[in-house]
Design goal:
The chain is 44% helix and 19% strand. It is α/β, with parallel strands linked by helices. The protein has a ten-stranded mixed β-sheet, with helices on both faces. The two termini are 27 Å apart. Residues 106-116, 258-264 and 288-294 have low confidence and may be disordered.
């Protein structure tokens, strides 16, 4: 049975994340866990105010559960104190969650803090795909964009995204490529330049088709888009805006230095600027169920 974990900080954005997670669980006939990691009230807070703080927090958790029930799903509700990313990963490992869903709270105003303290740490220390919701979940995903580069990380993103698509969903695969010597051919005949560019495009198509075959997927089942560009993120964002995509998926590299590098480019740009939900998968996300005894650090 598919298990999805929705982490809530009790904001309205987090309520949208719970609602989307519940919709996915209902579609996949799975189970939903709603987790709230409790923040310790300030130590100098008066006892009466501390009780009020805890009451409001508990009411917020009950509201999150009610959101899931309104979508037709009875959730498992968990409240626990501790470090947010560690508790999310611990529970995700315990229940073998296939997906962690979080809201985009403060992504625009405090992006560095949010990505640095939650999303990137989930990806750095875990092996679960992370879905960051930005849209109000009014319907199933209708148009999905999966950005691939042939790496294990993009393979994980592909598989994670396809699990979330249903009948009638348009699945687009975008591969951005470069023609490295195009700028050096100004003195050549246009026919020679065109031939070179066509060869590079065919190489890109072969790479995509070989990649999909290796994943056990038929290229003819998807809409494949090849874009020659110097900016992968810009190509993805342009496609999202032009085609009204409601979910975009990409991968991370899975180690600290490369993760920081990626968050400085494609994934970071999508999380900042994409107007749709963003699914980010680490390389291990396409593997079998995670080790329940692993210890996030």
């Amino acid at each position: 049975m598919v298990c999805i974990l929705a982490a809530t900080d009790l904001t309205e954005d987090a309520a949208d994340a719970v609602r989307r997670a519940a919709m996915l669980v209902e579609e996949l006939a799975g189970e939903l866990h709603v987790l709230h990691v409790q923040e310790a009230p300030p130590p100098r807070l008066l006892a009466s105010l501390r009780a009020a703080f805890e009451r409001v927090e508990h009411e917020g958790v009950e509201h999150a559960a009610a959101v899931a029930r309104a979508a037709g799903v009875e959730p498992h509700v968990i409240e626990r104190p501790g470090s947010v990313h560690r508790e999310i990963l611990t529970h995700a490992n315990t229940v073998a969650a296939e997906l962690v869903v979080v809201g985009s709270t403060r992504l625009n105003s405090l992006t560095e803090r949010v990505i640095g303290s939650v999303v990137s740490r989930l990806l750095q220390h875990g092996h679960h795909p992370v879905l960051v919701t930005k849209l109000e979940p009014e319907r199933r995903y209708r148009r999905v964009l999966i950005m691939i580069d042939g790496s294990p990380a993009s393979g994980a993103a592909l598989e994670a995204a396809l699990r979330l698509t249903g009948d009638g969903c348009e699945v687009n695969i975008l591969h951005a490529y470069r023609a490295p010597f195009a700028g050096l051919l100004h003195g050549e005949a246009q026919q020679e330049i065109d031939l070179y560019l066509e060869q590079e495009r065919e190489n890109a198509r072969t790479k995509v088709e070989t990649f999909l075959d290796a994943q056990g997927r038929r290229p003819d089942d998807y809409r494949i888009h090849l874009v020659r560009t110097q900016s992968i993120a810009a190509a993805g964002l342009a496609f999202i805006h032009d085609r009204e995509v409601d979910l975009v998926a990409t991968g991370t590299r899975g180690n600290n230095r490369l993760l920081r590098s990626l968050f400085g480019s494609v994934s970071k740009n999508l999380l900042y600027h994409a107007p749709c939900d963003v699914l980010v998968a680490p390389p291990g996300a396409a593997a079998s169920a995670p080790d329940r005894d692993s210890d996030p650090t």
